[in-house]
Amino acid sequence: MRFTSDRRLDDGVRERDFTLDGVPGVLWTSGSAPAPLILLGHPGGLGAMYPRLVGRARGALAAGFAAATLELPGCGDRPRSAAADEARADLRRAVAAGEPVDDAVDRLVLPLVEEAVPEWRALLDALLPLPEVRGPAGYAGGVIAIGLRLALVEPRIAAAVLFAGSFVPRAMVEEARRVTVPLHVLLQWDDEGNDRQRSLDLFDAFGSAEKTLHANTGGHTGVPAFAGEAANAFLARHLL
Fold first, then answer.
1. Residues 103, 125: Cα–Cα separation, whole Å
2. pTM for the complete prediction?
3. What angle do CA 68, 71, 76 make, to 5 degrees?
4. Binned average pLDDT, 10 residues per bin, the chain of 240 residues
5. Which domains, from first to last, does the chain contain?
């Protein structure tokens, strides 16, 4: 990992850009004492997502954490995938037409999970040895399929906040039955780009003994501010 910038934001938060095996990311810390790390999931495009990500990072730091994120495959300045672009277009057409989506979801999401999850695990390898960061770690955000797989295969993830705002392949529902870490799932009830019943079925499938579903009215981008506060309080119970 190589840090490429180091700056202080107006509230004293330290923000450092980095590259990890050529993949860009951002680390946010506050103070010198080691803090549990929260991985901030997102749908891709660090430049476009930055205002929302830095807001989420500030909330995490205020709750006692460090936070980091990583660019997703095929997003931002990373090479595009023609197959993923085609699958994404097919998914949008199927949703708009009310047609079956499973084939497009599989072609879009499964390759993304297979490539992204090892990168997020490598991010834990790189960041947890830093003096200002410690475990246990948590995951918060989307893409929900990436968070699901990380919660299943990565023992350093001790709790997860998952945003039910993206499709999950049917095959991964079986994986969800083997997830055991505490979960806090956010669902926008009127999400125009997601299937509510599929999200509810996925929540039901998770094998965690402690799992909470927070549903709010509103569309995909209408998550209320207090939902983030509740998510950070959940992570604090399990990681601090």
1. 34
2. 0.96
3. 140
4. 96 96 97 94 95 96 97 96 97 93 97 98 98 97 96 98 94 97 96 90 98 93 89 97
5. 2-78+113-239 (3.40.50.1820)
